[in-house]
Amino acid sequence: MQAAKLNLINADVTVLAEAPRVNPHRAAMAANLADDLNVQASLINIKATTTEKLGFIGRKEGLAAMATVLVGNASLSGA
């Protein structure tokens, strides 16, 4: 992203898991991602959902995550 002069505008992360509960860890997760991406934690949104006990996630055999990230040109994003 740096070579292409792109900035992170925001990131929306959804964790799919039956357990553990994500809410107590949301701030730390956002802070860790922000640190890794060298952005403010306020640009990272973390939320969670379950699969209603379906599949490997519902059987608590694992979890998954999906992320949607918006990037923009540094000269256009005000940075």
Structure explained in plain terms:
It is a single chain. By secondary structure, this protein is α+β, with helices and mostly antiparallel strands. 20% of the residues lie in helices and 34% in strands. A three-stranded mixed β-sheet has the order 2-1-3, covered by helices on one side. Helix 1 links the parallel strand 1 and strand 2 (44-49). The longest helix has 12 residues, at 26-37.
Helix content: 10-25%
Strand content: 25-35%
> Runs with pLDDT <50, length 5+?
none
End-to-end distance = 14 Å
Shape: elongated
Q: How many E strands?
A: 3
How many helices? The count is 2
Q: Indicate the mean pLDDT.
A: 91
What is the H-and-E element order?
EHEHE
* Computed Rg: 15 Å
Précis, in short:
The protein is α+β, with helices and mostly antiparallel strands and 79 residues long.
Task: Give the tags.
79 residues; alpha+beta; three-stranded mixed sheet; 2 helices; elongated
List the helices and strands and how they pair.
Layout: E1 6-16, H1 26-37, E2 44-49, H2 55-58, E3 64-73
Parallel strand pairs: 1-2
Antiparallel strand pairs: 1-3
